[in-house]
Design goal:
127 residues, single chain, mainly alpha
Length: 127
């Protein structure tokens, strides 16, 4: 399934926040992404309608099993692209993070897959 750029950004944010804290609230997503709380609510409603987060996201945002699977696929691409920007191009963490999200949301999946392949192959040669 093709995900829009907004869905990818929010799913990455939810994953990153979940890894830091047990409870992810709308306000923490708002701060993390630098967006308004109404924007967060609107996207969470969209993600709930897609089956990626549980309907009761007012107290705590929790990924469904389908959401977990989707975010793991997204994070696989994100991590390889992040490695390219951070390790190969030597961009600082924040800039590499921002560029990685931009890359996986704006470039075709085929291009992301090709970059992932190059990164994996190069990392194997270095090991």
């Amino acid at each position: 399934m093709k995900h829009c750029a907004g869905q990818i950004k929010y799913l990455i944010a939810i994953k990153e926040l979940t890894d830091k804290d047990e409870y992810v609230r709308c306000v923490s997503i708002s701060r993390h992404l630098g967006v308004s709380r109404p924007s967060v609510s609107k996207m969470l409603r969209c993600l709930a309608n897609c089956g990626y987060v549980y309907e009761d996201f007012c107290n705590s945002v929790v990924l469904t099993p389908e959401g977990e699977e989707t975010v793991n696929e997204i994070m696989s691409s994100f991590n390889e692209v992040y490695t390219f920007f951070h390790k190969f191009l030597k961009l600082p963490h924040e800039e590499a993070h921002e560029q990685s999200i931009k890359f996986i949301t704006e470039f075709p999946k085929d291009t992301c897959d090709r970059l992932k392949h190059i990164v994996k192959r190069t990392m194997k040669k270095r090991a």
